[in-house]
Design goal:
By secondary structure, the protein is mainly alpha-helical. It has one domain. A hairpin with a 2-residue loop joins strand 1 and strand 2. It has five helices and two strands.
Length: 114
């Protein structure tokens, strides 16, 4: 694919990342699952108003709790795949940042909100 006059091998970049950073991708999937489950937990206790991500809160309000959170996590995975496909170096840094953010979200979702 050509973007701004540069040829970017999207498929090759993604395959490179999937092969070289296989463990990171596995950790990403695990953190997405934990974030999904902990988000379900705290939103069911408090409400969608407690969700910090406005897109996910909107999805929860309009599509329901389970579907809204699932679509939010799915969109996150798509964003990671797209960024990793655009750049080998920056994309994999983005992958690591999303893993850290998901871990942080799991911790924040499980802190009691009394």
């Amino acid at each position: 694919m050509e973007i701004l006059g540069s040829d970017i091998p999207l498929k090759d970049n993604l395959l490179f990342s999937l092969k070289r950073y296989r463990v990171w991708w596995a950790i990403l999937i695990v953190t997405i699952i934990f974030d999904y489950l902990t988000t379900l937990y705290f939103v069911s206790k408090l409400s969608s108003d407690a969700e910090a991500n406005n897109v996910v809160a909107w999805l929860i309000d309009n599509l329901g709790l389970y579907i809204g959170v699932f679509i939010g996590k799915f969109l996150q995975l798509i964003a990671v795949v797209l960024i990793v496909s655009l750049s080998k170096k920056v994309g994999n840094l983005f992958l690591l940042i999303i893993i850290v953010l998901n871990c942080w979200a799991v911790v924040m979702n499980t802190i009691p909100n009394y």
